[in-house]
Design a protein that fits this description.
By secondary structure, the chain is mainly beta. 11% of the residues lie in helices and 29% in strands.
Length: 212
């Protein structure tokens, strides 16, 4: 858009090792252009999913109508609906035919965001992301990721930990495939920002959903 100096991420970025993408997404911006409104948030927490071997991934149950996007080319949005209320957004990664994706778990608001953004369901609600954007090309002009302008760019201190709410996945639940900005109060497990809400269905609707 006119006047913007940020650099949109190209498809090559997504077509790489999923753990690398999940880590490098921290500090980038998610942008949703809807009508005349531009919503922008800085990504501060992600989770990598590497199906079909990864039992915590939706794609562990094979190629279905729901997971079709995950098996497609990288650089597309995989958006699913759970509990009859929440949407969650993933970024498809790796090579076409390899059902890997990175879940976006939390954002720091940059512009156009008024609601809470710590947790994948809250993130999508604040960004007005729903199933209509499932399969959206992240190299397009509606929903995309970009690097922040050089003047506002800062290198995050990135930590990693086990993913949240996937205990049912056995040994896969212990994989340290969650990445987050150690200095951000918007990380979904930050007690400083929302003590008492961490892990609830409101802040973390992904919890147990991947078991279905």
């Amino acid at each position: 858009m006119a006047g913007r100096t940020s650099k949109k991420v190209t498809r090559d970025f997504y077509a790489r090792d999923t753990l690398t993408v999940a880590r490098e997404l921290i500090g980038m911006r998610l942008v949703h252009a809807q009508g005349g409104t531009l919503r922008v948030g800085r990504i501060v927490e992600t989770e990598a999913y590497q199906g079909p071997e990864d039992l915590a991934a939706h794609s562990s149950r094979g190629r279905t109508r729901r997971t079709e996007v995950m098996f497609g080319p990288p650089g597309y949005a995989y958006v699913y609906f759970i509990y009859g209320f929440w949407h969650c957004m993933n970024v498809v990664t790796a090579a076409e035919g390899v059902p890997h994706a990175v879940l976006l778990r939390a954002l720091e608001p940059v512009t156009g965001i008024e609601d809470r953004t710590w947790g994948p369901g809250l993130l999508c609600r604040a960004m007005h992301i729903d199933r209509s954007l499932n399969g959206a090309d992240l190299c397009g002009d509606i929903l995309w990721l970009e690097r922040p302008p050089a003047a506002k760019r800062r290198s995050p201190r990135i930590a990693r930990a086990a993913r949240v709410g996937v205990d049912y996945a056995g040994q896969w639940a212990r994989r340290p495939w969650r990445f987050y900005d150690k200095d951000s109060r918007y990380v979904s497990t930050s007690h400083a920002l929302h003590a008492g809400l961490t892990g609830s269905a409101e802040t973390d609707p992904v919890r147990r959903a991947r078991k279905r």
